[in-house]
Amino acid sequence: MTLTKKIIKKEAPKQGMLQNVMQQFEAAAERMNLNPNIKKILAVTNNELIIHFPVRMDNGEVEIFKGYRVQHNNALGPYKGGLRYHPTIDIDSVKALAMWMTWKTSLAGLPYGGAKGGIEMDPKNYSISELERITRRFTYALGDNIGPEHDIPAPDVNTNAQTMAWIADTYMSTKAPSERSKNQHVVTGKPVGSGGLEGRDRATGFGVFLTIKYWSEYKNIDLNGKSFIVQGFGNVGYWASHFLQEVGAKLVGVQDAFGTIVNPNGLEVESLFNYTTTNDGSILGFPGSEVLDKDLFFELDCDICIPAALGNQITEDRAGKIKAFLIAEGANGPTTVEAEAILKERGIEIIPDILCNSGGVVGSYFEWLQNRNGELWALDEIMVRIDKRIKEVFKKVYETSQIKDLDMRSTAYIIAIERIERAYIQRGIFP
Ligand SMILES: NC(=O)C1=CN([C@@H]2O[C@H](COP(=O)(O)OP(=O)(O)OC[C@H]3O[C@@H](n4cnc5c(N)ncnc54)[C@H](OP(=O)(O)O)[C@@H]3O)[C@@H](O)[C@H]2O)C=CC1
Ligand SMILES: O=C(O)CCC(=O)C(=O)O
Question: Where on this chain does substrate bind (predicted)?
Fold first, then answer.
């Protein structure tokens, strides 16, 4: 089979995420009557770092890479947020993603601010040893712009536990021997065995599932037998599908960077996952499935739609054709502001990204605590703790949205921003 992944990846939109998050922020600020001075602070990023760094490739040539780290706000604690390796990364998209992290950590009640970063590249074009050297050189170039009590990266698109292990190892090696082990929590999402948390791998997808479960409970909807589609079958998309299938929901369509497959009778999640591991990561050709034109993905007949890939996927033209009654945003920024207005009009509800995918950063917080306190937590205990936190935050957002007669995104923004506003005011900076 010929795999045409790169062509599709190049089509992934990269413009507009910053406008999107800014419009969401402006609308929330106006609605909550945000202190104008605090609004000025939150409308901009604290620090933006762009680094060009050289790496020797396997063939002996040197290639220059462009890396980013944007620190949006740290009023509530150290900067926190993932690292993305992707060809569509640019400064504006990283700024947007950093801003979303600030709202997400605040909403989840964590002692963190927001940041994001990454490298502009397609990791599929590099060998494992090249990826290791690229990651280590990037970490070295970042230097003390990251740190366990200052700015703590984590996995995002095309980065994983291995990437985090290389970062931790490189960062720790720059410290005096007696200080090294105190710096393990410079990143979260590490492999279990190198300071990683049992369950961090599934934490984001688990959180996506939990928010769908709690939403369904409020609506008296039984998830057993409900159909769902997932865009992106990576860390978030796979684990969300895994937990939904466990309660009897049926995966009927999947899209990854290679293309789209469907089966109205259901695609078995574990078999599909195992298939991708033997098929260059691609879902195409999965037995029993049919290939669908990628532009028709969001029009598929289903009850729940889970975007779990890149930003700006649910656009104005797609919003009018969506059949699902619920959109659960596993990805960051998958729905444009214009599309959201159409969905609202059509009565399609959205569990917003800063709530829906917050299980990941909640898991990261537990890993950070585990490292800081020299503890080792068991998987069962961790899953219960993530569930408890997501349940509390979901309840707060959902019930407040009912009282205020607002959608969940606007409500989540107001709760998140109010917490930051309160912190600034308590410090006496802004009367
Ligand atoms: N990892 C985490 O803990 C968290 C992630 N998120 C967000 O979730 C989303 C997914 O992240 P994650 O699962 O970690 O990333 P992964 O790299 O594990 O998976 C990304 C998935 O998206 C697919 N994809 C990439 N480009 C396209 C495209 N143009 N069309 C359709 N599918 C595409 C990839 O396909 P292929 O495999 O073929 O490349 C892959 O299946 C991102 O928006 C991320 O910011 C949010 C919170 C936490
Ligand atoms: O786990 C984390 O620190 C952040 C993960 C992330 O990048 C996100 O939630 O978007």
Answer: 80, 104, 364
Continuous segment of H or E residues that includes residue 379: helix 379-404
| Contact (CB, 8 A) for 150 and 117 | no
| Dist CA 353 CA 311 (whole Å) | 10
Residues 131 and 271 in one domain: no
Q: Residues within the annotated binding site for substrate?
A: 80, 104, 364
Ramachandran sector of residue 109 (left: φ over 0; alpha: ψ -120 to 50; beta: rest) = left
The predicted-structure confidence for 262-301, as pLDDT tens digits, reads as follows: 999 999 999 999 999 999 899 999 999 999 999 999 999 9
Most informative mutation of 235, 282, 300, 318 for ligand 1 (most atoms within 8 A of CB): 235
- Say whether both 88 and 120 belong to one domain: yes
> What is the atom index within ligand 1 of the atom nearest the CA of 330?
8
Return the best residue to mutate from 89, 119, 157 for the ligand 1 pocket (most ligand atoms within 8 A of CB): 157
pTM of the model: 0.96
Predicted confidence (pLDDT) per residue in 12-62, tens digit: 444 489 999 999 999 999 999 999 999 999 999 999 999 999 999 999 999
Specify the CATH number for the domain of residue 101: 3.40.50.10860
Q: Is residue 409 part of a domain?
A: no
Q: Whose CA is nearest to atom 2 of ligand 1?
A: 156
The single-letter code of the amino acid at 371 is: N
What residues of the chain score a pLDDT lower than 70? Answer: 1-15, 429-431
Whole-complex ipTM? 0.99
Q: Residue 167 domain-assigned? A: yes
Boundaries of domain holding 344 = 202-356
What is the distance in A from the centroid of ligand 2 to the CA of 160? 12
Alpha helix positions (H), 323-378: 337-345, 353-356, 359-373
CA angle 307, 313, 317 (to 5 degrees): 125
Residue 391 annotated as catalytic:
no
Q: How many domains does the chain contain in total?
A: 2
Q: Same structural domain for residues 348 and 246?
A: yes
Residue at a domain's end among 187, 222, 247: 187
